[in-house]
User: Fold these one by one.
Assistant:
Number 1:
Amino acid sequence: NAGVTQTPKFRVLKTGQSMTLLCAQDMNHEYMYWYRQDPGMGLRLIHYSVGEGTTAKGEVPDGYNVSRLKKQNFLLGLESAAPSQTSVYFCASTDRRRLNEQFFGPGTRLTVL
Amino acid sequence: SQQGEEDPQALSIQEGENATMNCSYKTSINNLQWYRQNSGRGLVHLILIRSNEREKHSGRLRVTLDTSKKSSSLLITASRAADTASYFCAHPRGAGGTSYGKLTFGQGTILTVHP
C-alpha cells in the first residue's frame, strides 16, 4: 500500500516550458487536492477534485490546469511555466468517511529559471 | 487570505523540555487539525479536535481549542530530537457539506529539538 505518490520528485524548467505533475493514490479516495508550499506561506490550495472527471479551482489556480481522468490519478499541468511558480507542490487525498484527515504525497520540488 | 496565524514561527528547545505551539483562525470551524512535516517530506496528520471539545490527548501530544478566542494550542511533552519538524494547524475551508474536505493551513511553526 503505497499511499500517495508523486512524480517527478524534482524538476527544473525554463520560463515558458510546460510540464505535468502526476499524483497517484491507491486508497480509493474520492477527493484529491493540489497544494503549493512557499516559504512563510504555509500550504495554498491550487485545484481540487471531488471525483473522477470533476475538478474545481482552489485559492491560487491561475497558471495551472488539472485533470482527473481516473479516480486514482490527479494531474497538475503548467502550460507556460513562470519563475513565480517555483515552489514545492504537494498532492493530497481523502474520502467522505475521512473528510477531516488528508493524506499527503512526498512533494515535487519545481524550479523555474 | 483565510490563512490562520501560528506562533511562534520558530521554537528551539532541549530534549526533554515541553514545546507549545499556538494557532489562531478567523472563521467558525467544526474541527481543527494539526499536521507535522519533516524536512523534505509531505505532511502527516497528528490529531484532530472537534469544536465541542476543549482538550484532547494522544500520546505525548495535548491539543486545546478555545472557540471563543478562535485559537488552539499544541503541546508536545518530553520532546525528543525526532520531534524536530514543522507543525501546521489546519481547519476545514467552507461551511459544512460544501467544504469537500478542503483545508486552510496556518503558516507553521518550525520546532528544533536539540539532543
Number 2:
Amino acid sequence: AQSVTQLDSHVSVSEGTPVLLRCNYSSSYSPSLFWYVQHPNKGLQLLLKYTSAATLVKGINGFEAEFKKSETSFHLTKPSAHMSDAAEYFCVVSDGNTSGTYKYIFGTGTRLKVLA
Amino acid sequence: DVKVTQSSRYLVKRTGEKVFLECVQDMDHENMFWYRQDPGLGLRLIYFSYDVKMKEKGDIPEGYSVSREKKERFSLILESASTNQTSMYLCASSPSGNVDEKLFFGSGTQLSVL
C-alpha cells in the first residue's frame, strides 16, 4: 500500500534563505508524486508533479523537487524564501489499486514559516 | 474556468443527525473524492468514486457513506453524526484514466457537530 511521510511538521526560515521540505514515500507500483500548497483560508493549489519523465521537476513560484527512487524521496526546495511562501505544504502520492483505480494519498503537511 | 462547488461553507449539526454534504463539478470528470482535513493529520481519504454509481472506500470510511447518481455530483453522508466528525471536509475531482492527473478542489465545508 502507498504512503507518504513528511518528515517535518513545521519549518522556519528567514526571508531570502533556502527552503527544504522533506517527503518520503512508499509505493507498490510506479507512483506519481505531487506537492500542493494551502495558504491560510485558501484552497489547495498544485505546485508541481512528477510523472516519470524528468527526475528534477520545476513548479510554480520558483519551487522545484527531485525524485530519488533509491531514497524513495521527493523533497521540495526553493533557493530563496519569500514572505508569501508562508503556507502549509502537502506531499501527495498517486498510485494504482488492484481494482485499476487511483488513490491520492496526502502527507500530514509541513507548515512553513518565513521570518522577516 | 474549472469549478468544484461544495454546497455549504459552514455547517453546524447536532449529534445523531443525518448530514448530507454535496459536491458538484462542472468539468465532466470521471473521478471524485471526499477528504477530511484535521490539524496535524493532513488530508485523509474517506471515499472516492471513479464512475457513476461506483465507489470505493478510502482510508477512513467508518461512519460515512457516499452517493453518486449523476456524474457531476458526489454526496457524502454522515448517517448519525458524532462529535469526532467535526472537521473540514474537502471534495475533489480529477479527469479519468491517468495516475498523474491533478486534483481540483472545492473550497471546503467546515462541519461542527455539537
Number 3:
Amino acid sequence: AQSVTQLDSHVSVSEGTPVLLRCNYSSSYSPSLFWYVQHPNKGLQLLLKYTSAATLVKGINGFEAEFKKSETSFHLTKPSAHMSDAAEYFCVVSPSGGSNYKLTFGKGTLLTVNP
Amino acid sequence: SAVISQKPSRDICQRGTSLTIQCQVDSQVTMMFWYRQQPGQSLTLIATANQGSEATYESGFVIDKFPISRPNLTFSTLTVSNMSPEDSSIYLCSVRVLQGSLGNTGELFFGEGSRLTVL
C-alpha cells in the first residue's frame, strides 16, 4: 500500500522569498516520487522526479526536492518565489519495483505568491 | 516525453446526455489512463485504457457509466454516460513513459484536460 500526505493545503509567500511545500509518503516498496504543477485551466506538468538516484533532485523553474528516507519526506523548495509560480502543486508516489504501476496523488497544495 | 491532445477542452452539457472525450498521443505508448479531477480536488484514477481489450476500472467506476475505447497505441476515448451535475469535473488523459529495467519508474504525461459542466 502507498499513500502521500501534503501537509499544507495552502501556502502563501511574497515574491522573492523562499518556497517550501511539504510532502510525506508511505510505501510498501522503494518508491518513485514526483512533483507536478497545475496552473489554472491547464493540465499537469512534471516539475521533478526521484527514482532512487541522487536524493537531491533538481527540476524545472528553479525547484528542487530532497528525498529523505528516514523522515519519509519529499519536500519541494525554491529559493525565491516568482509570481508565475502561483499554481496548485501535487506530490505523487509510485512503487519503483514490482508490477504495481499505479500512482497515488496527494490532495494538492495551492501556492499563492503575493507581490 | 509525449504530447497529448484532448478534445473537447471544455463543454457544457445537459443532464441525461452523454459526452465522448478524445485523447490523441504523438507517439505509441503502452500505458494510457483516464483521471477525474473534481472541483478543488486531487486526481482520481478512473481506469487504465488497454489497447485491444476492455479497460481496467478502479473501485467506484464502472464500464456502463464510463465506457472507454482504445483502438490503437496512440488514441483513446472516454465517454461520460447519462450525465448528472455530480459528473462536473475535469477529465484528464495521461500516458506513462516506461524507463529502464525497472519499467515502471517513468512519470505520467498529461493532456490539458476536458472541463465538463453538467447542468
Number 4:
Amino acid sequence: EAGVAQSPRYKIIEKRQSVAFWCNPISGHATLYWYQQILGQGPKLLIQFQNNGVVDDSQLPKDRFSAERLKGVDSTLKIQPAKLEDSAVYLCASSLAGNNSPLHFGNGTRLTVT
Amino acid sequence: AQSVAQPEDQVNVAEGNPLTVKCTYSVSGNPYLFWYVQYPNRGLQFLLKYITGDNLVKGSYGFEAEFNKSQTSFHLKKPSALVSDSALYFCAVRVDDKIIFGKGTRLHILP
C-alpha cells in the first residue's frame, strides 16, 4: 500500500512569513494527526482529526497555526506568521480507528525559520 | 495523568551483543503499547505493539518487547544487535484514542 505522503520535504522561510504543509494519508485511514518534532525531542501532537472533524487540538497554538481536513482525506497545516521557535520537523500520520491500530508516518517536512 | 518515560537518552551496544531499550508507562485502564523507530530524515516507523495476550511480543527486524504489568514496563529487546539498528527509538502508549510518545532513546551499535 502507498504510505503517507507529505510535501514539501524542506522549507526555509523568514520569521513573520507564512507557510503551508500538505499531507495525504493512507487510503481508508479515518484518523489523521499532525505532530511537531523539535530536534532531540519526541513528537508533540498538534491536532488530531477523525474523518473531517477535530478530535484534539489542545496543543495547537491557534493564534498562528491552523489545520483543515476537507472531505476527510487530505490535510493542510498552516503557520501564519512563523516564529523562530517554529523551526522543527512537522510529521503527518494516519491510522485506522481504534486503540490497537499503529500510526503510519510520512517522512515529514523540515521547516527552518530564519 | 498519562505518561511514558524512557529513562535513557542514549544506549551504546557492541555489534552482536543483546540490546535493551527501556520504557515505563503510567496510564489508567488497559494500555496499548507501541515501539517506533526513526532513522535520520525519516518519519517514525512502527516496530511492534502489545494489546493483550502473551507478554513477549515480536516485531520487525528481529525486535521483541516484554510487557510487565507489575513493573508497568515495556522494554524493547533484540538478542544480537546490528550496526544498522542504530537509530532513535520511541515508546508510545495509546489510551482513549490518544497517543503519548516518550522522549526517545538514541541507540548506537558499535562495530
